[in-house]
Please model this.
Amino acid sequence: MRRAAVVLLVLAGALAAPADAQSPAFVKDSAADGRGALDVVRVALGRAVEGRLLGEVTMEKAWTTADLRAGSGPARPSGSICLQLYTARTAGAEPPDYLVCASPAATGEELRGRVLRDRSNGLPRQVGVATVTRPTARTIYLRFAQSAIDRPATVNFAAEAVTRARGCPRPLGCRDTAPNAPATGDLTLRGTSPSG
Model:
């Protein structure tokens, strides 16, 4: 029985913590510089053992799906938490090449993840999906295939949280980025992934 308990504890630890084959790159942002419920204080990007990319966005305080839904309705979309990924474009001068976003499902607490590619002649187009998990009340993980962003050698990254609660300007809502634009974190990807 004791051995089974130890095995369960080891498995629980493996599921709770991201298993990285490559140490993630991360950047921190000052607390209380965001407007609205979501103030991003840390963003990280790395490659997990199975080959997918793993993004992490951490807020200053605990948050819920309801914070992303606040102020949304038929005429206003819900809020979102997104990784901004620059694989060819220059941060600060151009929009990100890709967005990896979590936004609320139509009902319930579920967050849905999408990988979007920016287009110069229209709205971003979905090119993949992201698996969304919440390891803590402050943090969200976004896992996605490297192939969804064309397997770049390097990625410049940032995060943005958007809410549309009462008091937030229309139509953009309250936004916080980490780090403050045009700064980004930088990740060099070693080799290629067999699975993603």
The chain has a mean pLDDT of 84.
